[in-house]
Amino acid sequence: xxxxxxxxxPSSRRLIIDVPREIPAGQVIITxxxxxxxAEASERSEARDIELINRNAERxxxxxxxxxxxxxxxx
Length: 75
Hints:
The protein has a domain at 35-71. The protein contains two helices and no strands. The chain has helices at residues 35-55, 57-71.
């Protein structure tokens, strides 16, 4: 599970984090990424995802139709 939240870091550089109950107790990794870097990475990731979908669209459509054909069977 990943949770992303954009926050403003105060000049004191001190943060208090309330962790949602959905996150299990135990070790976690907290990553700090400047917002401009995260936005650029998100755009690159989105462009890469779109390219992969377009490249595999025909195969993905065949697989989806195959799955839907099984759903209409009377079992």
